[in-house]
Write a structure and sequence with these properties.
By secondary structure, the chain is α+β, with helices and mostly antiparallel strands. It folds into 2 domains: 1-76, no CATH class; 78-110. It has 5 helices and 5 strands; from the N terminus they run E-E-E-H-E-E-H-H-H-H. The protein has helices at 28-37, 61-73, 80-88, 90-103, 105-109; strands spanning 2-5, 8-13, 21-25, 46-47, 55-59. Strands 1-2-3-5-4 form a 5-stranded antiparallel β-sheet. Helix 3 packs antiparallel against helix 4 (90-103). It is globular, with a radius of gyration of 15 Å.
Length: 110
């Protein structure tokens, strides 16, 4: 699952043979934001121990589900990209906009 929020970008997976989820991020601060705001008992942030994503941490399914529920109730904006710009700056907003523009191609394929 990709989770793109106004406080970070995450890839959430369950690795084979593991019971916990692995939350991966490209930016360490994103995991720190997630820990601070929604998952205080998120596992230690590990750097460079896997493939592709530089940072990762472990969490139970239950803790992640509770966190996503809180995230939903915290949505208070009418424009996502504007909220990203306000919380994370124009540079992050531009990167997210590129993702948005790329995903627009999905409409053309249907």
């Amino acid at each position: 699952m990709w989770l793109i929020t106004n406080f970070g970008f995450f890839s959430v997976v369950q690795k084979p043979g593991e019971k916990q989820l692995t939350i991966r991020a490209r930016v360490k601060k994103d995991l720190e934001n997630l820990r601070q705001k929604y998952i205080p008992n998120l596992g230690e942030t590990l750097e460079g121990v896997g493939t592709d994503y530089r940072y990762r941490a472990k969490v139970s399914h239950e803790d992640f589900a509770e966190a996503t529920k809180k995230m939903v109730f915290d949505i208070d904006y009418s424009n996502f990209k504007n909220s990203v710009a306000a919380k994370q700056g124009e540079k992050r907003e531009r990167i997210y906009h590129k993702v948005w523009a790329t995903l627009l191609d999905l409409e053309r394929e249907v």
